[in-house]
Design a protein that fits this description.
The protein is of the alpha+beta class. The chain has a domain of 141 residues: Butyryl-CoA Dehydrogenase, subunit A, domain 2, CATH 2.40.110. Helices cover 52% and strands 10% of the residues. It is built from 23 helices and 13 strands. Strands 1, 2, 3, 5, 6 and 9 form a 6-stranded mixed beta sheet that branches. Strands 4-8-7 form a 3-stranded antiparallel beta sheet, with no helix packed on it. Strands 10-11 form a two-stranded antiparallel ribbon. A hairpin with a 2-residue loop joins β5 and β6. α9 crosses α16, α10 crosses α16 and α12 crosses α16. The longest helix is centred in the middle third of the chain and has 36 residues. The chain is globular. It binds stearoyl-coenzyme A (ST9) and flavin-adenine dinucleotide. The site of flavin-adenine dinucleotide has 21 residues, from β1 and α12. Pfam families: ACOX (PF01756), ACOX_C_alpha1 (PF22924), Acyl-CoA_ox_N (PF14749). This is Acyl-coenzyme A oxidase. Its cofactor is FAD.
Length: 667
């Protein structure tokens, strides 16, 4: 999608492409219809001055937030006035490109009501939420506890005399802290609190608590609420009002407890349904599955900037070629950049698969089939963890790949990083989530002789074979076989999991021993997730990929798999499945893949179809006219509003005109 000024500095690069660009764009968008919607919404946002991202990094917090409110309000108005569908509305939000309260309203508040509310409760709350007559947030985390949900301290004590719950924050650490949209925008909070009936603590349950007046938006009596303060980076996540919230014996009706999983009757009786309590974590599973495709989008933005810039930037030369070399020609640049490009493609493919996995589990849950829930939980938690960590590191690596100019906000990369990096923490700290995967692997292995593992854990059913047979690769091209590659990842993961499971089995089963082994448990969880990523990327390619793009996708898939193999060579070698020589052969194959990517690199990032408006980067411009726009951009800097800087008279002039030796000067 070209929106430059006509002159294409990257035309030579684009002419080298060896695949069907349009087909790739459609593939990456998820289909022809999605592609068309995406194109339409990207243009709609780019052409509307209210959505402009200019100056975002220069705005003070108050202005930044107000501007964000303006954009969110305008987005909602646009959705209504143009009668946009849900898919179109989501795409519009995507291109507006800043975290805001509506994310939590649509992304967590509504899904939690759908998942945990009874039909009656859904009828009551969802219409209000859908028309945004109320704005909701997801208030789970507290000052004292985030990961340990069972440790939350807010209480909801039932009072049968009035048929109400009394919401209370008994300690400082029970203060709700972090919920997005809570600080200034929300009228309602989905509060996770300890349910107490007749002095008995039934653990954590969800409640809808009104927190602000629907008349004038002031906090309701005995509710203390506000924003928790400025966060990391300029712009970034500071458009969001992450908030604090305290209740001082605030009364809400009994019907405000979401009662699909458990009920409190009028006379104060607590009744659990026969559904697993983990369904209470459903909103988190929903967001985690969506985070994988988001990771691909964020990483692809950084990679688009770094690839285009690397094709424009020239440094040094060699005696064989005239002029200076494009930095993309350097092997070191390729070996840092191309695996990230391949990773963005891998996450897109796996993200599509995640959507189908989630749709499948939702269908099953509706039919009261909970059998796949543990595997889906492990999968969503693990892939959320791996993909966000790699993406955050990848954005930072792309910044370094752009040299000094990458450090300027004009590159778009610092703000991208600041907006993205909290994804490693929110929706579950990444280490905590890997430990959940590890627990799932241990449980699966402990039952393997009785229960055949399914889905992404099915390979553990072959644990004996995977533990005894070693890799047969003897020449580089032996690696160019997806079964060989898959078996390597399966064997490494199975062996790592089995080793730590065996060590734990030999012990006393104490929590201390478990803790002692958590580094190995995290490593084995990571190995399992890397296997899922490689195997699902391969699987997606093998199911109906159009001819005009299949070859390039295969190259990217091998690039991804080989770079994972090499980056984790220590683990692969330690399991004894592969030898050092086999790793060396994979390294050579990876270089061949780089040669195949090189002529296609710019077109491969064009295929992500990010508009200049969405990228917001002088380095990643479609037309490659980097230097003109960096230079022009400097004149937008507020320090350059005046030729002589504000502060000269008071602070610079005295220094320049004192004409005195400093007392300690030796000169
Ligand atoms: C204009 C339109 C605009 C529209 C825009 C829309 C855009 C949408 C985008 C959305 C963006 C959202 C931004 C996100 C913001 C961040 C929100 C948050 O951080 S929110 C806050 C996020 N906070 C966090 O993420 C907190 C992280 N902490 C946790 O998730 C949990 O406390 C825990 C899992 C670590 C432990 O929990 P604990 O209760 O101690 O559990 P145990 O360890 O004892 O395990 C017991 C059993 O349960 C099992 N199981 C566990 N979980 C699940 C699950 N989800 N499922 C199923 N099962 C699960 C587990 O395997 C075990 O099984 P078994 O072995 O018995 O068979
Ligand atoms: C930008 C942002 C937005 C957020 N939005 C929301 C929201 O809308 N709603 C909401 O409810 N919450 C929200 N949160 C909170 C977020 O979900 C939590 O911060 C997150 O779940 C991590 O929990 P924590 O802060 O308690 O970290 P902690 O658990 O305190 O983690 C601190 C460190 O301890 C380690 N650690 C903790 N326990 C263990 C263990 N058992 N074993 C090994 N290591 C351990 C962790 O790995 C980490 O390194 C948001 C957070 C951020 C940053």
């Amino acid at each position: 999608m070209q929106d430059g000024n006509g002159l294409d500095h990257l035309a030579g690069e684009r002419a080298m492409a060896q695949f069907d660009l349009q087909a790739m764009k459609v593939y990456l968008a998820g289909g022809q219809r999605e592609y068309e919607i995406s194109t339409k919404m990207a243009q709609l946002v780019a052409n509307d001055p209210v959505f402009s991202k200019e100056d975002r990094v220069r705005l003070a917090r108050k202005d930044l937030y107000k501007n964000s409110l303006r954009k969110a309000g305008h987005a909602w108005k646009t959705i209504l006035e143009k009668g946009l569908s849900e898919v179109e509305g989501l795409k519009l939000r995507h291109f507006v490109d800043e975290p805001t309260y509506t994310d939590l309203h649509w992304g967590m508040f509504i899904p939690a009501i759908k998942g945990q509310g009874t039909e009656e409760q859904q009828h009551k709350w969802l219409p209000l939420a859908y028309k945004m007559a109320i704005i909701g947030c997801y208030a789970q985390t507290e000052l004292g506890h985030g990961s340990n949900v069972q440790g939350l301290e807010t209480t909801a004590t039932f009072d049968p005399t009035t048929d109400e719950f009394i919401m209370h924050s008994p300690t400082v650490t029970s203060t709700k802290w972090w919920p997005g949209g809570l600080g200034k925008a929300s009228t309602h909070a989905l509060v996770y609190a300890r349910l107490i009936t007749d002095k008995k603590d039934h653990g954590i349950h969800a409640f809808i608590a009104p927190i602000r007046s629907l008349e004038d938006h002031t906090p309701l009596p005995n509710v203390t609420v506000g924003d928790i303060g400025v966060k990391f980076g300029n712009g970034g996540y500071n458009t969001m009002d992450n908030g604090f919230l305290r209740f001082d014996h605030v009364r809400i009706p009994r019907e405000n407890m979401l009662m699909r999983l458990a009920t409190v009757t009028k006379d104060g009786k607590y009744v659990r349904s026969n559904k697993p309590r983990q369904l209470g974590y459903g909103a988190m599973v929903f967001v985690r599955q969506g985070i994988v495709i988001d990771a691909s989008i964020y990483l692809s933005r950084a990679v688009t900037i770094a690839v285009r810039y690397s094709a424009v930037r020239r440094q040094f030369g060699n005696k064989d070629e005239p002029g200076e070399l494009q930095v993309i020609q350097y092997r070191t640049q390729q070996s840092r950049l191309f695996p990230l490009l391949a990773t963005a493609y891998a996450y897109r493919a796996v993200g599509f698969w995640m959507k189908s996995l989630y749709a499948d589990v939702m269908k099953r849950l509706n039919d009261n089939d909970f059998s796949t829930l543990p595997e889906v939980h492990a999968c969503t938690a693990g892939l959320k963890s791996i993909t966000t960590s790699v993406t955050a590191d990848g954005i930072e690596e792309c910044r370094k790949l752009c040299g000094g100019h990458g450090f300027l906000c004009a590159s778009g990369l610092p703000e991208l990083y600041a907006a993205y990096v909290p994804a490693c923490t929110y929706e579950g700290d990444n280490t905590i989530l890997l430990l959940q995967v590890a627990r799932f692997l241990l449980k699966t292995l402990s039952q393997v002789s009785k229960v055949r593992p399914v889905g992404t854990a099915a390979y553990l059913g072959n644990i004996k074979q995977l533990s005894t047979q070693n890799c047969k690769v003897s020449q580089g091209h032996d690696w160019l076989n997806t079964s060989v590659l898959l078996e390597a990842f399966e064997a490494r993961s199975a062996r790592q999991a089995a080793a730590v499971a065996l060590r734990l089995a030999k012990g006393s089963g104490s929590e201390a021993e478990f803790q002692e082994n958590t580094p190995e448990l995290v490593e084995s969880a990571r190995a399992h997730c890397q296997l899922i990523l490689v195997s699902k990327f391969i699987e997606q390619l093998q199911t109906g990929t159009p001819e005009g793009i299949r070859k390039q996708l295969e190259v990217l898939c091998y690039t991804y798999a080989f770079s994972q193999l090499i980056d984790n060579a220590g683990d692969f070698l330690a399991t004894g499945y592969v030898t050092g020589n086999q790793i060396a052969l994979a390294k050579e194959e990876l270089k061949h893949m780089f040669d195949k990517i090189r002529p296609n690199a710019v077109a491969l990032v064009d295929a992500f179809d990010h508009t200049d408006d969405y990228l917001g980067s002088a380095l990643g411009r479609y037309d490659g006219d980097v230097y003109t726009h960096l230079y022009k951009g400097a004149f937008k800097e507020s320090l350059n509003d005046t030729v002589v800087v504000d502060g000269y008279e008071e602070y610079l002039k005295p220094v320049l005109t004192q004409n005195l030796w400093a007392p300690h000067s030796k000169l």
